């Protein structure tokens, strides 16, 4: 795990899948090379490091993870006033509409359904990332 100490435009990825973290990291480095990326394997690892990081510009947060799931991590982040303006994009390969609505009610800014990596899913990811990174400047 990399922990940048002086990251002005930091993007955090919190996902228990090594493969999906790698895919996201490659996409981010390709389309947003000026943004350092910091990866975490679960919500607890992220929460444990949060106070040591510069304020992220964007958090990509998987819904289902061991230790501390995405919803619990989202609640933890939104309870802290310092992070209330940080966009959080929740992600899941399968989530019932009630859970998606619950994430929005808890403070998520977007919810992406994970794809198997086709052009449409990468295009959607890029569009959502551009939207939140541009909005949060």
Question: Can you put this structure into words, describing what you see?
Answer:
The chain has 137 residues and is an alpha/beta fold. The chain is 42% helix and 16% strand. The protein has five helices and five strands, in the order βαβαβαβαβα. The chain has helices spanning 18-31, 43-50, 70-78, 97-106, 119-135; strands at residues 11-14, 37-40, 58-62, 88-92, 110-113. Strands 2-1-3-4-5 form a five-stranded parallel sheet, sandwiched between helices. Helix 1 links the parallel strand 1 and strand 2. Helix 2 runs parallel beside helix 3 (70-78). It starts with 10 loop residues before the first strand and ends with a helix. Residues 3-7 have low confidence and may be disordered.
Short synopsis of the structure:
This protein is an alpha/beta fold and about 140 residues long. It is built from five helices and five strands; from the N terminus they run βαβαβαβαβα. The chain is globular.
**What proportion of the residues form beta strands (DSSP E)?**
15-25%
- Dominant shape: globular
Mean model confidence by pLDDT = 86
Low-confidence stretches: 3-7
What is the CA–CA distance across the termini?
Answer: 26 Å
Which sequence of SSEs, written as H and E, runs from N to C?
EHEHEHEHEH
Q: How does the major sheet shape up?
A: 5 strands, parallel
Rg, nearest Å: 14 Å
Task: Looking at this protein, list some descriptive labels.
alpha/beta, globular, five-stranded parallel β-sheet, 137 residues
């Amino acid at each position: 795990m990399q922990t940048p100490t002086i990251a002005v435009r930091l993007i955090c990825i919190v996902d228990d899948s090594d493969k999906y973290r790698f895919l996201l990291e490659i996409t981010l480095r390709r389309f947003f090379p000026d943004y350092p990326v910091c990866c975490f394997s679960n919500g607890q690892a992220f929460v444990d490091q949060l106070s040591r990081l510069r304020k992220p510009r964007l958090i990509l947060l998987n819904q289902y993870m061991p230790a501390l799931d995405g919803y619990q991590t989202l609640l933890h982040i939104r309870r802290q006033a310092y992070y209330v303006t940080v966009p959080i994009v929740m992600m899941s390969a399968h989530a019932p509409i009630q859970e998606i609505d619950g994430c929005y009610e808890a403070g998520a800014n977007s919810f992406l359904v994970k794809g198997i990596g086709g052009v449409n899913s990468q295009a959607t990811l890029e569009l959502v990332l551009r939207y939140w990174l541009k909005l949060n400047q």
